[in-house]
Amino acid sequence: MTSAPTAAQGRTLLLVGGGHAHVAVLADWIRQGPPAGTRTVLLTPHPVLRYSGMVPGWLAGQHGQDEGLVDLAALACRAGVEWLPGRCAALDPLVREVTTDSGARLAFDCVSLDTGGVGRGSAVLGDDPRLVDIRPIEDFVTRIAAMPPPRRVVVAGGGAGGVELAFGLRNLAWAEVRPEVALATGADGLLPGFSDAVRRRVATALVRQGIALHLADARLEGGAIPASETKLEPADLIVAALGSAAPDWVRASGIAVDEAGFALVDEHHRSLSHPCIFAAGDVSARADRPLAHSGVHAVFAGPVLAGNLRSVLAGKHPASTYRPRGNSLYLMNTGDGRAIASYGRLAAEGAFVLALKHAIDKRWIAQYAKLAGTA
């Protein structure tokens, strides 16, 4: 087992990934100053973070493509953090080193992981040139923006992400004729884990907009995509919204992982096996409680992660814990000027819900633009 660096050591903190939690770490460094005697490096493939919650609104023409971006490079500069473009390809916790996709080796005393998960589309559905995974979200947006407007779309995945993308693509702003959309939820059905009231409102909105709903698993077979006994062809675009898988390098590193290969952390978001490693967001799994892979949790875990990193870098034990609320507020954009709100058993729908969603999303983006000096 490795040990955390002491306050007397010259230290390097490596932030791997530019997810929601690490954005909060950069913000904390700006507000309070970086930890004394620590060099902080941010490794992430893009200079910006695209907020996935605004992507359905972009599809429906409610936001521009360049809205919903957090300028990671500018935040890093203001925080006194060195930004390096690249992805993690391997993690060696024993020698405390990360190897990037370009072959560079980055040494660290303490490392925090917030890369997000990876797409599961090919693994679950199969390979097909029409298949576009929503992870990573930046690649998804780039591919959708570059292709001709599809005539018929199949969205695989019945969670909130799949539902919102189905609505967004049905209302695709730059399509002369609205695409036909089919939503294949999988065997778990429409919006598992949500209340009956929310599911009823979403099902009604799907019917109202002419989106075909199939409560079955989609799969790719011989160039076709059926769902149970129903053929979903023809399809110009197949969107995989099937949740996150863990990057292969996490399990290969030898750190503690759960059954699915996500980095296993305690209530302080610290690795169960290597105290010099922290993780948050979709790349991690909490050992003390189930925590859904959701941007909501990553956002709220960010300030906790920042505080714990400060403690460890000062030679102290982490003390802060992220305790999720009993219920989380979800606002699902239906692409037609309305949205559906979910909070526990409660549900609401209308233009006022969409206005609330836009206000929350834009406020979250604006706070980081102000900190980065780009507002």
From TrEMBL:
Cofactor requirement: FAD
GO MF term set: NAD(P)H dehydrogenase (quinone) activity
Keyword vocabulary terms for this entry: FAD, Flavoprotein, Oxidoreductase
Top-level taxon: Bacteria
Domain FAD/NAD(P)-binding: 13-286
One annotated GO biological process: aerobic electron transport chain
A Pfam family annotated for this UniProt entry: Pyr_redox_2
UniProt name for this protein: NADH dehydrogenase
Organism: Erythrobacter dokdonensis DSW-74
